[in-house]
Inverse folding.
């Protein structure tokens, strides 16, 4: 049996869409124990393979110096508890479950302690994340220089993507409608709409 | 996790956070690199230390195998996500007044370090599932419990799971919610988040503002006390 099961594996296009969507990521590395940082990352597709996820860290964060050259990036998705009471078609044959989307990208980690790289990286980050027409040109140049000295760039060359969308693809259609309604009533509109699209 | 003092979170708040945790990511080092699985945990506070995080995963998931083979488990990390949001410079008077603001992402994060221990034991797994349901069902207005499911049906599903437990060695909490922004910036960021319906985020920013203001007031008090002391010394001389 393969893990995760085929029906829960998102298509390559769905994975690419997740990678491109602005979101907070967790960069996990191993050096003297596990190290993590939460950071926004920019996805750059490659000519072949999966391409690159790039971000930046505070220079005082030891993670960029203490690692074994590999990294995992965990990208969050929708998630929520699903009560057996929300599955009327199952009668008493249902157990609680937790629906989720997950994506872990693993690969080689490189560090860019390089002001020119960082300036280009920040431009790409702003272009990806900022919905208004605001650009770095609006920043006081002395302030920007000081900030650039305080950060270092990190880049994960993605070699493998492990993704799973467990959104009740195996569940009865009527149950799915009920579950989405219950999640919406709970305020979890994110998972409700992902279940409706699954 | 790198945590500057201004973003540190105290033990009581960390414990409350672990009790309320939803889906968390269990990370271990596998034969082909880092493995991670999202799962809900129940936080058990026992003994003198931090206690344990207790959960279960699918038996077909290979992540638990290495820990089951090791005498004292394997090193594990649990990342507990928290509230987070993007902050545009457009929301900050500092940007409009003098261009001294950058976009940023505010977040809360919790890292739990410990040993992963496997419980391939039907009674243990059943109790774990009962505890999870007892924790989560009431939060959704339900009183469902495992005994409502037919015994053979439930036993069949439970056989497809293995129990996992992270015996906690250390926990680091971080709340990066603009403690380093000016008060006018914080007031506007909070208001904009509330306009967008993101009350959890707005509440976290308000909490961070209160913490930062209290620290600022305490610092000013210390400075005033030092000045007073020096002035008194000069008077004596």
């Amino acid at each position: 049996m393969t893990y995760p099961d085929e029906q829960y594996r998102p298509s390559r296009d769905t994975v690419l869409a997740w990678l491109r969507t602005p979101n907070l990521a967790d960069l996990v590395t191993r050096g003297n124990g596990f190290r993590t940082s939460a950071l926004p990352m920019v996805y750059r597709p490659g000519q072949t393979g999966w391409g690159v996820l790039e971000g930046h860290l505070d220079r005082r964060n030891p993670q960029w110096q203490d690692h074994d050259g590999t990294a995992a990036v965990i990208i969050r998705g929708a998630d929520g508890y699903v009560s057996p009471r929300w599955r009327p078609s199952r009668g008493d044959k249902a157990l609680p479950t937790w629906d989720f989307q997950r994506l872990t990208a693993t690969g080689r980690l490189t560090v860019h302690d390089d002001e020119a790289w960082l300036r280009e990286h920040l431009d790409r980050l702003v272009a990806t994340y900022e919905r208004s027409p605001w650009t770095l040109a609006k920043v006081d140049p002395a302030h920007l220089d000081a900030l650039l000295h305080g950060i270092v760039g990190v880049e994960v060359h993605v070699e493998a993507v492990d993704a799973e969308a467990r959104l009740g693809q195996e569940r009865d259609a009527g149950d799915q409608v009920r579950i989405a309604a219950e999640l919406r009533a709970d305020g979890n509109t994110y998972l409700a709409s992902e279940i409706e699209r699954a | 996790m790198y945590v500057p003092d201004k973003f540190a979170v105290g033990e009581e708040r960390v414990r409350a956070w672990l009790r309320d945790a939803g889906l968390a990511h269990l990370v271990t080092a596998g034969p082909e690199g880092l493995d991670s699985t999202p799962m809900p945990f129940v936080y058990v506070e026992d003994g003198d230390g931090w206690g344990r995080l207790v959960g279960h995963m699918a038996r077909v998931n290979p992540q638990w195998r290495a820990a089951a083979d090791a005498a004292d488990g394997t090193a594990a990390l649990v990342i507990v996500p928290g509230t987070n949001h993007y902050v545009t410079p457009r929301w900050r008077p500092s940007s409009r007044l003098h261009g001294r603001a950058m976009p940023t992402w505010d977040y809360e994060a919790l890292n739990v370090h410990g040993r992963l221990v496997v419980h391939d034991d039907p009674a243990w797994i059943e109790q774990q599932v009962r505890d999870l349901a007892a924790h989560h069902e009431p939060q959704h207005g339900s009183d469902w419990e495992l005994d409502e499911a037919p015994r053979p049906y439930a036993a069949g599903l439970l056989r497809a799971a293995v129990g996992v437990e992270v015996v906690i060695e250390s926990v680091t909490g971080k709340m990066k919610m603009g403690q380093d922004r000016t008060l006018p910036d914080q007031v506007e960021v909070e208001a904009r988040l509330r306009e967008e319906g993101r009350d959890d985020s707005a509440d976290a920013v308000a909490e961070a503002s209160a913490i930062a203001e209290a620290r600022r007031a305490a610092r000013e008090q210390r400075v005033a006390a030092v000045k007073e002391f020096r002035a008194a010394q000069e008077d004596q001389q």
Remarks:
- Chain A is about 30% helix and 35% strand.
- The CA atoms of residues 9 and 195 of chain A lie 14 Å apart.
- The first strand of chain A starts at residue 24 and ends at 31.
